[in-house]
Amino acid sequence: MIKTRITELFKIKYPIIQAGMVWCSGWELASAVSNSGGLGVIGSGSMYPDVLDSHVVKCKKATKNNFAVNIPLLYPNIENHIDTVIRNKVPIVFTSAGNPSIWTKKLKNHGIIVVHVVSNLKFALKSQEAGVDAIVAEGFEAGGHNGLNESTTFCLLPFLKKKISVPLIAAGGIGTGKTMLAAMSLGADGVQMGSRFVLSNESSAHINFKNAVINAKDGDTSLTLKEITPVRMIKNKLYDKIHNAYMNKKDTEDLKNILGKGRAKKGMFEGDLDEGELEIGQISMYLQSIKSAKDIVDEIIQDFYNTRNKLNEY
Amino acid sequence: MIKTRITELFKIKYPIIQAGMVWCSGWELASAVSNSGGLGVIGSGSMYPDVLDSHVVKCKKATKNNFAVNIPLLYPNIENHIDTVIRNKVPIVFTSAGNPSIWTKKLKNHGIIVVHVVSNLKFALKSQEAGVDAIVAEGFEAGGHNGLNESTTFCLLPFLKKKISVPLIAAGGIGTGKTMLAAMSLGADGVQMGSRFVLSNESSAHINFKNAVINAKDGDTSLTLKEITPVRMIKNKLYDKIHNAYMNKKDTEDLKNILGKGRAKKGMFEGDLDEGELEIGQISMYLQSIKSAKDIVDEIIQDFYNTRNKLNEY
Which of A154, A163, A275, B104 has the fewest beta carbons under 10 Å from its own? Predict the structure, then answer.
């Protein structure tokens, strides 16, 4: 057991949060992480309202521990998702990609712990003003949707730590005990890991996508699509198409048309490595193994203590 | 005293290396850092051969401790710089921005410890094969010249640690004891800090530039000029001019003409904040104070131990 402001807030054993990810984190992964001492998070961004409802119901059956739902605030018909988490008494909600002042109060009025994901100081302060219970600070190296400022985990964390008072969860580049310890050195009260849990038995990522993550080397991901919504993905045929259009000064509407619909599902869930969007963090450069969520959490904790012991030798 | 493979290699008290920086790190700063227990580095990239010679001679008089010279391998008439460090028996040379296989052997034949700066695995392995004694791994957040892969300190360090055997120095995002501890959690044997020492009494940076660094917020620097040579700088009028040209698909020669000559000197040494190149790391978002090199080193070490004690409470 590791006691921090985050483990106390979420009533969990370890300050390890599994990121809510589109197409990769349903109830199987979320409940497995919560059963292993971390906080599992259902990624609702890729779910229709009835699908989210069914995942929440199954997750509650599969774990007695706290879990959360991540709701991207740009989700169409977001009211349905908000209703689903309130109706099912989901204990914790992570909101992202939008204005934290719109839903925080309503969720908190229903006794829900609210966490907002940010990538800069402006939104960290906005979140705090909106009354969130904690903030996820997401660095440039993180996979999937991200901010425009390009601030890395190494710089963003100590910076926000000086400016905000609510508990701080680090995201971006974290997937081992060493990186967890580093994030906590920089002031994090907990860590959020996405890419590491994509490579779990319980993640719903397609095996082709998992293998692409294992094969990724340094320089193989890029934060792109900054004109539509910045996202870090593996450079593939789809990436080249978008990047060429961007370099040829296509406007936002053109880019949206080239991107088309359903690219994330096609890539991460259906395993189309050429035409699909493969959202993953830079840490994919050294992630190598698919394991159970429990083995991942246990390994991280062991590595955390081993590394701390090593640092104490200096 | 902190004992690591780097302090043993360089025979220094603390594993803190002051980055060799154009226009900012002459003999005054290098000797002050070496006298404070770290390793001071003269940045030769902005010096004519006779100027470098004079800085080396003065540095040797000002400190009994080891110091180093950083030589960018793209420097015109590099033979002169190589001759200068050999003739003056400079104990340690950092090479950067070029192929490590060209000069490493000659320098080592003269008993000089050689360190090469890299930002990806390919050049880390190349450096090791060339026989360097240590490697600086520079993350995306670092100021000044950098690589194209955009790998951040948080991801690059643990990745290289698994692949190389020579001692590893972390650079990019480091300027406090907390960040030093984080880098060592990730596998670094030592840390290199540039931006922090720009804000020292002994740095030769213009006071306008120092104030611009203090005033920089998150998102105020950008890694740009990727077509000529990638460099992280503060976004100012010059940056806008270059960025607009880039977005309008100007070719490399056009970009070189727009950039012109002497921009780094104009910005960092002469203090022209509009037309000069202001090279600094992302960490400028929270650096706030100008101090003596000795106070900087002492403060970092104190912060390192305080943070380690705090981590031990978990």
Answer: A163
